[in-house]
Amino acid sequence: MDAMAPGSREAPEDPFAPHNSASAVLDDHGRVIGWSERAREYLGYLPDEVLGRTALEFLFDPRDHATVRAAAAACERDRGWSGVLPVLHRSGRRVELGFRARAVIRAGSAREWFLVAAPAEEMLQWETDRSVLDGLFRRSPIGLSVHAPDLSILRINRALARFTQLSVAEIRSRRIGDFLIGPDVKTIESRLRRVLETGAPLIFTEQPCRLRSDPDHERVVSVSAFRMEHPSGGILGVTQLVEDVTDRYRARRRLALLNRASARIGTTLDLGQTTRELADVAVPDLADAVSVDLLESVARGDETAEDASGPVRRMAVHSVVAEALRVMYPAGEVFHFDPRTPQARCLAEQRPILEPALRSSLGWYFQDPERTQRALDLDAHSLIVVPLTARGLLLGLLSLWRARRPEPFEEDDLTLAEEFAARAAVCIDNARRYTQQHQAALTLQRSLLPQELPEYSAVEVAHLYLPADPATGVGGDWFDVIPLSGARVALVVGDVVGHGLHAAATMGRLRTAVHTLADLDYAPDEVLSHLDDLVNRLAAEQEPANGRSRGRQIVGATCLYAVYDPTSRRCTLARAGHLPPAVVTADGTASLPDLPEGPPLGLGGLPFESAELELAEGSLLALYTDGLVEARGLDLDEGLERLREVLSRPGSPLAETCTAVQDALLPDHPPDDVALLLARTRVLAPEQVVSWELPAEPTAAARARHLTEATLTAWGLEDLAFTAELVVSELVTNAYRYGGGTPLTLRLIRDRSLICEVSDSSSTAPHLRRARITDEGGRGLFLVAQLTERWGTRYTRDGKTVWTEFPLAAAAEGHVATAASLALDR
């Protein structure tokens, strides 16, 4: 403790010091034979007034004589005495003084008594301080060391001596470096020198230290230090108090590590990222190297496998020793653990394994002897393996090694690793469950989208589809190319509001509905009207009967529906809340046509309008969803402008154009689904299409047969002539009978199939039925259905068209035979 100025109440000096105490000498009869100046100051008596008088006569109140005689007897018996007695001041007031009495032997065996006195309050305080000082060196559990200005040790207490394995006396004059390892010595001595130089105390500063007697175990101590000064101001040295706070430090570190793990693990629902976060948090606070291995089924997002001996996938590795990363299996490796390894036992028994000394444990050698030896060469000396389990499911394991840190893993480290792994396993399982659900939703979504688009005569197509970032969830974007009658094609792009399974399922239902409506050959605006009704019904189905919400509802969708006719080069489009398509001419001029914007699907009650464009051969039509032009946070106009710039590259293959659009507008992980459909228009040559107007009279069927036979012969399709003539005859006859007496139109198209169309002004729909044996008619459409690959009816503003298709690659003999047989039956 710092020495204070004399009289300081915080740290008083020795009250019995010569310059502080009063003294007197008594002879063997109790007479005063000596009296000091300080005694006069304390009691007011001059020497002449007390010398020769007995002390009992004037110094003590008669009431205290018994106490004084008892003290004198004790002094006689023990050759000395110390204590507190009341004495009388010259003024008559009582004064409490502390006394020390000692016998002094004179010549001739005469005895005298030497008395030293001081105020009782100062004596008691000093005695208390002496007992505290004695307690610090003898009984205190906190280490105490006193150092000279050169930092050599003057004295240490018993608590600190226990760590040195030397006695208190043997430590005197030694230095800190005699007991601690080098780096720790430099740290401590530099701090003590700073205290000596500045006088600023060191308070509860924690630092690691290793004893030379036990270098493999790191301790953490809390050090406080202060400078010792002489009352005159000279520096006597420095005193430090040292407390072993290793357990407290480790507990605090464990809590901090667990808190850090809770904050840093599970920031995403990506399985790989979650395992990497686990590895990053464990190093270096808990281990020098770590690996995270998941059962292969878990890594795929499936349910955990019943057989824990199955293959594992290394998901993450991390190490403070760079060379260790070349020894450990890399991330992504799939392998089996040898049954004799600690990892295999951990998986099989689902319990943690602690191997504090690897060199004395042969169990882990069997996985890979070469890698094992390389690991030992890197001083890997201790191992913990902890199973990763959550909700009763085994997910994998966490392996932790120590190499650079000399102390081996202990039971406390194992407990920490278990708590650490338990928290991380929940995050991993959440990521696994999300991966499983995301994969299921993604599989559903992809199964609902077209996988490969066939070749079409009307257009050349290419597409780009990218699912949203996994954190967002799958969406409801879709696209489609649907062949229609008359060599036409329907191009569709849509977007269901929201994300998740509901959005994907709703998208599938809408896509199916679009196919059905396309087969009915509805106009684009009519298709959207029917889809609007469907979305309203789907929304109504999701409303609970009790009025309580069941979660986020799909409330609408957008759609763009276009029909392109390669014979007329006309494209009819209608949109429901969707962005307009981009049209690029053959010379690279890109534009966004001004189309009527209908409301999104699901609002109901509002009409949709169609618009018609005439497209030159080689024009490019780009249909897309909003995720394409808004992915990078661009303003909508900026995104559309960038899309026009990318599309304005004439002559580029469509696949390359899709890639260029992706590179220019999309990040690596778009926040929303993206669908892009590119269609380059084609035109059927004039010689592939012929049409005639026939009068509504009985000779129309014969005229139609003749024209069909002549045209097919010119086209080199003589093998189909008989069948086609029969079908055309039936269609023309029906049109003549039920068409209302207006002229008929016959059109033949030679494409990938032979298309025969008969149009009239009637809107009466033909119906296929099976005639009875006794019926004289009713077999015409049945005959048409049997002889053609497809047939149907589409309606126009002026009436209807009945169409049929014949496959050109089919065996002509089979068609002829079938036609002949059916004609005879008829």
Question: Main sheet?
Answer: 6 strands, antiparallel
The tally of helices reads: 24
What's the mean pLDDT score? 83
Computed structural class = alpha+beta
Oligomer: single chain
Q: Which blocks of ≥5 consecutive residues have pLDDT under 50?
A: 1-11, 773-777, 810-814, 816-826
Strand order of the largest sheet: 13-12-11-16-15-14
- N→C terminal distance: 127 Å
- The beta-strand count equals 32
Shape: rod-shaped
Range of helix content: 25-40%
Strand content: 25-35%
Report the C-alpha radius of gyration, rounded: 51 Å
Please provide a written account of the structure.
- There is one protein chain.
- The protein has 826 residues and is α+β, with helices and mostly antiparallel strands.
- 35% of the residues lie in helices and 28% in strands.
- It has 24 helices and 32 strands.
- The strands form six sheets. Strands 13-12-11-16-15-14 form a six-stranded antiparallel β-sheet, sandwiched between helices.
- The longest helix is centred in the middle third of the chain and has 38 residues, at 411-448.
